[in-house]
UniProtKB/TrEMBL annotation:
Organism of provenance: Minwuia thermotolerans
GO molecular function: 2-oxoglutarate-dependent dioxygenase activity
Keyword Oxidoreductase: yes
Keywords tagged on the record: Antibiotic biosynthesis, Oxidoreductase
A Gene Ontology BP annotation from the UniProt entry: antibiotic biosynthetic process
The protein's name: TauD/TfdA-like domain-containing protein
């Protein structure tokens, strides 16, 4: 993949950019809240044809793509959010990404300490180890790229599993048994403060993965969660080691305007630590979408039962806490 960027890195055509800008202008003129936008409000036939082809590749083919060249430097952040949100509405159903109901997420260093129980990685400038997000597809739009670092890295979770199974089949089996993951204090009524699922689940002809080691680690502090065994820790360590092997990893740079889409169930993502510019308006800033797709991969029951809730199409719907209305803020909070 590193030697064949043409397989996964696409550039918008001038005609597509014109369509997108016109769709954005049209929506802005209506003066409607982003949350009230419907897919039919966003008309950009050629651009959406590309988006939908990529969506299919992400869900059922290669598992990821990078779209380059949205001219965000001449847009406001609201215009960028509209352009991106509109694509998301055509691809799937945007899901809440935290207990505050944020369906448009902000990946930005808020100066928080990743060591604190409630801090999520996206609020820091720390290196993030390989993991999955919620929902079927995670999208990132780069609004500002920061001063240095912050490379995005991907690896095929299926390839990681295969290597692990060849090297240590005993540990591969351990990772196919349940682990407890904290819900980060964002607990729907009637649920435990943690969820339980294996890291790897063989289902529907695919190896479905769900892995957030920080959530497993922080789950250990919750009363009622059994302590990890030495063998479980060895298995998690070996998984992490394999994701560090250079032939497993694809690094990519984010330029302003880049959009990355990744299928959570077959691709792990991470990023390197980064350094920010001192000026607030130049700080690294990505807009995130979690999209549930009705025709996403077949999922094992344990993933459906353990999720906070489901979309009308029966897909896990992210971190939807009952009673918390959706919000699509234009700034990190
Ligand atoms: Fe993530």
């Amino acid at each position: 993949m590193a030697a064949h960027t043409e397989r996964w890195l696409e550039h918008w055509s001038d005609e597509e950019i014109t369509e997108i800008e016109s769709a954005v202008a049209h929506f802005e003129a209506r003066d409607v809240d982003l949350l009230d936008m419907r897919a039919s409000h966003y008309v950009a036939p050629q651009a959406l044809q590309r988006v939908m082809r990529i969506r299919n590749d992400v869900l059922h083919g290669r598992g990821f793509a990078l779209l380059r060249g949205l001219p965000v430097e001449r847009w406001t952040i609201r215009q960028a959010a509209i352009a991106y949100w509109g694509m998301g509405l055509h691809m799937g159903e945007p899901c809440s990404q935290n207990g505050k109901g944020h369906v448009l997420g902000h990946v930005k260093n808020l100066g928080l300490d990743y060591g604190d129980a409630g801090t999520r990685g996206y609020q820091t400038n720390a290196r993030l180890p390989f993991h999955t997000d919620g929902s079927d597809i995670v999208g990132l739009l780069c609004w500002r790229s920061g001063k240095a670092g912050g490379l995005s890295s991907l690896t095929s979770s299926t390839a990681v599993f295969n290597r692990l199974a060849l090297r240590r089949p005993d540990l591969a089996r351990v990772l196919m048994q349940p682990f407890c993951l904290t819900r980060w204090g964002e607990v729907p009524e009637g649920r435990k403060p943690w969820s339980e699922a294996p890291v790897f689940m063989s289902h529907g002809g695919r190896m479905i993965a769900r892995y957030v080691r920080s959530a497993i680690h922080k789950g250990q502090d919750l009363a009622g969660v059994p302590k990890l065994t030495a063998q479980q820790i060895e298995a998690l360590d070996m998984l992490d080691e394999i994701t560090k092997e250079p032939d497993m990893v694809l690094d990519m740079e984010f330029l302003p305007g880049d959009i990355q889409f990744v299928c959570n169930y077959n691709v792990f993502h991470s990023r390197t630590a980064f350094e920010d510019w001192p000026e607030t308006e130049r700080k690294r800033h990505l807009l995130r979408l979690w999209l549930a797709c009705d025709d996403g991969p077949d999922l094992p029951d344990v993933l459906i039962q353990n999720c906070e809730g489901q979309t009308a199409g029966g897909r896990p719907n992210g971190i939807a806490v009952p009673g918390v209305p959706f919000a699509a803020p234009l700034e990190a909070a």
